[in-house]
């Protein structure tokens, strides 16, 4: 049982963008291309700071972003207002979300599918997707493929990200991991280290749990939710999914009659 709410990583949205933005460009471009193909209105679940939602809205599509983390949503809204794009932000749990409209394209990106830590959570999420999809609409999401990762306990490793934060401090980010095979959950602990103006070392520690679900399990979950796969890719360049690859990107629709 986790002693935290799994939102610790998402309490500092401005620095989150500095950490995640530079490595998200290929992902953002992929989902913008899919949004252009499938059209709107667009619903992004677990939208965070709007790294994907705002560029999609900038294409002229109506976008609704949903997230549990209030600081992330507030930051996304401020960014959208500066960009003058058509967005609506909702603080809600994707497992129980009910909105009055349906959407032509529903997105769950940033590996957010892995934040749903039990089969019951995943089923509730997919029930929301099915409920909010318009007839003929498409649901797209990505997740890490368990076969592409070394899932075991790991001590703190080398520096993964080195950047200057909004306060002008050089921050070095590293992490450790614990693997629970019974629940298929990795618990990552992230360490952000910097020095104050007087040179004294500082560290901020955050934790997050992510579930690794196999492609076969995902197929079964989608089938049970009345969703059928229309395409799967292994990277942001539309390469075919490989069983040993790190990433699984899935596009699906409501099954006829479901």
Descriptive report:
This protein is an alpha/beta fold and 258 residues long. It is built from 6 helices and 11 strands. The radius of gyration is 18 Å and the shape is globular. The mean pLDDT is 94.
Supply database-style keywords.
33% strand, four-stranded antiparallel beta sheet, 11 strands, 258 residues, globular, alpha/beta, N-terminal domain of TfIIb, Rossmann fold
CATH class of the largest domain: Alpha Beta
Mean pLDDT: 94
CATH topology of the largest domain: Rossmann fold
SS class: alpha/beta
Largest sheet: 7 strands, mixed
Q: What percent of residues adopt helix (DSSP H or I)?
A: 25-40%
Provide the CATH architecture of the largest domain.
3-Layer(aba) Sandwich
Give the low-confidence spans.
Answer: none
Shape: globular
How many discrete domains? 2
Please list the strands of the largest sheet in the order they lie side by side.
Answer: 3-2-1-4-5-11-10
Number of strands: 11
What percentage of amino acids are in beta strands? 25-35%
CATH superfamily of the largest domain: Vaccinia Virus protein VP39
The end-to-end distance, rounded to whole angstroms, is 35 Å
The number of helices is 6
**Rg of Cα set:** 18 Å
N-to-C SSE string, H for helix and E for strand = HHEHEHEEHEEEEEHEE
């Amino acid at each position: 049982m986790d002693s935290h709410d799994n939102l610790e990583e998402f309490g500092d949205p401005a620095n989150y963008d500095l950490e995640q933005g530079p490595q998200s460009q290929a992902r953002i471009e992929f989902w913008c291309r899919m949004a252009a193909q499938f059209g709107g209105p667009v619903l992004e679940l677990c939208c965070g700071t709007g790294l994907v939602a705002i560029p999609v809205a900038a294409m002229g599509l109506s976008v609704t972003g949903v997230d549990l983390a209030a600081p992330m949503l507030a930051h996304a809204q401020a960014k959208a207002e500066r960009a003058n794009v058509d967005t609506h932000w909702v603080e809600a749990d994707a497992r129980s979300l009910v909105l009055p409209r349906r959407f032509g394209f529903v997105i769950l990106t940033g590996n957010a599918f892995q934040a749903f830590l039990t089969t019951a959570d995943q089923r509730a999420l997919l029930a929301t997707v099915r409920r909010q999809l318009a007839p003929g609409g498409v649901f797209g999401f990505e997740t890490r493929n368990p076969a592409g990762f070394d899932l075991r306990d790991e001590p703190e490793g080398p520096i993964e990200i080195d950047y200057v934060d909004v306060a002008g401090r050089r921050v070095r980010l590293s992490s450790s991991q614990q693997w629970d095979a019974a629940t298929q959950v990795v618990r990552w602990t992230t360490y952000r280290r910097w020095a104050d103006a007087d040179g004294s070392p500082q560290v901020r520690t955050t934790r997050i749990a992510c579930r690794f679900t196999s492609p076969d399990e995902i197929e079964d979950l989608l089938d049970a939710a009345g969703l059928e796969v229309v395409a799967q890719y292994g990277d942001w360049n539309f390469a075919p999914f490989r069983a040993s690859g790190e990433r699984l990107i899935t596009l699906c629709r409501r099954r006829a009659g479901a």
